[in-house]
């Protein structure tokens, strides 16, 4: 990092994997100057890595990186790189995260950080030992409506929180012709929808209500086989006709009963959380409903810029009111001037990039961090144990998270 003549701080950025998410991270860094011109930050896209030549070419020609390599170690060894975005497939996350920490690079990594709690803890330990700043791709928590919901709970405006209901329902694998990508292979992905979607939902609950202390879970694999997709080709949205069928090795659906831990803003609240990658109907219905003695609220990513809010008993117009995201909710005003003009998914990543780089510079540390990832992984692992044993399982709150009340 260096200070430019105009007083802005230049931060050298490295990228590992130039797929859709890597492109999104790159755009987020580039758009910081438009959304947050007062931050005094100047991300410099320095070095990208991807084993596919077409993607390394794209990194330089389209995204604007100064250079690109096939080996991610070249990014980690580049002295001009201060921070690294890790956007590789899940099964490489822990390997690259540990390597980034040992190289002394602050890193922004997509979730799940590891194939389960064990790998996630190894990354957390490496980051702690190296003293590097971390940020996790829990993008839904940055929606202005979610930030506002967190405030409502913290200020007691919904009364005592009694229960929560959440869902992460997607249809990206609803078609049985959907390709058997690495996401369905346990050795590559670890668990299935538990790590892919339920981890996001666990983070939403913990960010708004507090740490989850106990879980009871059930899982199901709806499609036992899928047509094989050669590694490195297509995406998990690809459909294959008359392909060679191979077994699906992890779950398509997961459901959990949960209890919020002692000491949280919503201590002892109970609820149900569900995640599915094979739902027919919902496209990306990722949402949370919070119920309290003084009111309730619900939010769905398919209507990201809305929060449905109910007042308490005796309100003149008791029932739900649609509240549009507006200036004063999270960072909404950085992107749009007034309610009704919507933010998009990419904007959530710009907020995530801002929080990450602020923490790197030693400013306000409100970014999701590796301890948040470990906490979510711990809950997911407890759910796996519960589904296997048909018993309740506990999850001990993790220190150093940004969970509500932490």
From TrEMBL:
It comes from the Bacteria. Residues 12-138 form the Gfo/Idh/MocA-like oxidoreductase N-terminal domain. Keywords: NAD, Oxidoreductase. Residues 389-399 have a biased composition (Polar residues). Residues 387-406 are annotated as: Disordered. The keyword NAD applies. Residues 147-297 form the GFO/IDH/MocA-like oxidoreductase domain. InterPro entries: Gfo/Idh/MocA-like_OxRdtase_N, Gfo/Idh/MocA_oxidrdct_glycsds, GFO_IDH_MocA-like_dom, NAD(P)-bd_dom_sf. This is Gfo/Idh/MocA family oxidoreductase. It comes from Leucobacter alluvii.
């Amino acid at each position: 990092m260096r200070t430019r003549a105009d007083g802005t701080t230049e931060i050298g950025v490295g990228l590992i994997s130039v797929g859709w998410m890597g492109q999104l991270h790159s755009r987020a860094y580039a758009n910081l100057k438009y959304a947050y011109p007062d931050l005094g930050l100047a991300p410099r896209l320095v070095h990208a890595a991807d084993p596919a030549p077409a993607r390394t070419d794209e990194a330089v020609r389209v995204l604007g990186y100064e250079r690109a390599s096939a080996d991610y170690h070249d990014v980690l060894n580049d002295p001009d790189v201060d921070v690294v975005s890790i956007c590789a497939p899940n099964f490489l996350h822990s390997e690259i995260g540990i390597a980034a920490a040992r190289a002394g690079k602050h890193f922004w990594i997509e979730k799940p950080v590891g194939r389960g709690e064990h790998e996630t803890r190894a990354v957390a330990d490496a980051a702690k030992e190296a003293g590097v700043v971390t940020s996790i791709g829990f993008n839904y928590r940055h929606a202005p409506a979610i930030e506002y919901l967190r405030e409502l709970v913290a200020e007691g405006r919904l009364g005592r929180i009694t229960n929560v209901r959440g869902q992460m329902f997607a249809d990206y694998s609803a078609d049985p012709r959907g390709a058997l990508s690495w996401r369905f292979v346990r050795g590559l992905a670890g668990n299935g929808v538990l790590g892919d979607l339920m981890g996001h939902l666990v983070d939403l609950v913990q960010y708004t209500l507090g740490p989850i202390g106990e879980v009871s879970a059930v899982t199901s694999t709806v499609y036992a086989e899928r047509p094989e997709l050669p590694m490195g080709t297509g995406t998990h949205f690809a459909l294959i006709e008359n392909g060679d069928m191979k077994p699906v090795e992890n779950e398509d659906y997961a459901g959990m009963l949960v209890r919020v831990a002692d000491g949280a803003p919503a201590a002892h609240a109970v609820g149900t959380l569900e995640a599915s990658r094979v739902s027919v109907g919902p496209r990306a219905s990722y949402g949370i409903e919070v119920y309290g003695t003084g009111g309730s609220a619900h939010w769905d990513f398919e209507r990201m810029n809305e929060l449905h809010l109910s007042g308490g008993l005796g309100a003149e117009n008791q029932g739900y009111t649609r509240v549009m995201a507006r200036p004063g909710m999270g960072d909404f005003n950085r992107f749009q001037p007034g309610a009704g003009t919507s933010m998009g998914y990419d904007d959530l990543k710009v907020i995530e990039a801002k929080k990450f780089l602020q923490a790197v510079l030693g400013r306000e540390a409100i970014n999701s961090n590796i301890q948040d990832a470990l906490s979510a992984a711990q809950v997911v692992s407890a759910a796996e144990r519960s589904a296997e044993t048909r018993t309740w399982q506990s999850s001990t709150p993790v220190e150093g998270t940004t969970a509500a009340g932490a």
